[in-house]
Amino acid sequence: MTFLLELELNSSLKATIQKLDEEESSISRKKQPELMLELWDKLAKNTAMARKSIRWPIGQVLPEEISYDDQKEVILLKGKTTKAEIPLPKSKIDSLTAVSTAKTSTSAKVKTFSTFAVNPIETNDIGNLSKSVESVIEGPLKQKRWKKLVTSLESLESGAASGALSTIEQSQLVEAIREFAADADTEQQFVDEILKSVILARILTYRNEDNLLKYCIEMGKLELVEMILEDEQRVVSEMVLANLLKLAAGKSEKRADLLKILSRNFSRKSMTEQTSQVLTTLESIEIMLELIDIYKSFEEPKNQENVAKKALGLITILMDAHGSRIIYEDELHQKFAQISNFIIEMQSLLGTFAKFETKNEVSKLDDDFSQKCIVRKIQLVKHKLAW
Question: What is the CA radius of gyration of the chain?
Answer without folding.
Answer: 30
